[in-house]
Amino acid sequence: MNQTAPSPAFRREEPDARRLSLIEACARVLARSGAAGASVRAIAQEAGASVGLVGHYFGGVDALVSATYDHVDRQVAQALDKAVATAGDDPRARLEAFVTASFAPPIADPALLATWIAFWSLVTARKDIARQHDEQYAGYRARLEGLLGDCGVATTARRRHAIAVTALVDGLWLELCLSPGCFTAQEARDIARDFLALITSSDR
């Protein structure tokens, strides 16, 4: 009987798909049950996979949670990059797009907040997660400093302004996800734009 063997490309992609399914399942478990509930068994059940598959791809739950943190951060970064690219070439528009993208889907999402809170809860308990947290926030601030520089903000002022903008965005994002009835996404965008106008006009 003639049987068509799977192509090499298919064989390469299948493990990647299985690995991704475990990462996505881990994110859902973290959002629903927090870090304490993210056991190998719970994640495997969520993914419809065997417990052994988690060990095969990640070696254990700690490595899977770490990989999930990286994956979620990449998704956020991609959403920010898309917003900046859509804004065109104007430096001010690109800066505003980067900052205000956090107040719209897929970033302004209660499920994402729940997953992120689970990661934050591990920062003080796990050095690898603390390192990832520091690297991710440093990357966000570095991107923000570059966009501020494109708008003419002085080199000496960029770091402190990037820290301030990051804190403002985090605070607004948290409240928007936790209590969406307190203010609208448009109000959050307006608050952020007002602050950007202030710092970009005063530090040239």
From TrEMBL:
It comes from the Bacteria. The keyword Hydrolase does not apply. SUPFAM superfamilies: Homeodomain-like (SSF46689), Tetracyclin repressor-like, C-terminal domain (SSF48498). It holds the Pfam family TetR_C_6. InterPro entries: BetI_C (IPR039538), Homeodomain-like_sf (IPR009057), HTH-type_TetR-like_transc_reg (IPR050109), HTH_TetR (IPR001647), Tet_transcr_reg_TetR-rel_C_sf (IPR036271). The keyword Flavoprotein does not apply. Residues 16-76 form the HTH tetR-type domain. Residues 39-58 bind DNA. Keywords: DNA-binding, Repressor, Transcription, Transcription regulation. PANTHER family: HTH-TYPE TRANSCRIPTIONAL REGULATOR BETI, HTH-TYPE TRANSCRIPTIONAL REGULATOR RUTR. This is TetR family transcriptional regulator C-terminal domain-containing protein. It comes from Novosphingobium jiangmenense. The lineage of its organism: Bacteria, Pseudomonadati, Pseudomonadota, Alphaproteobacteria, Sphingomonadales.
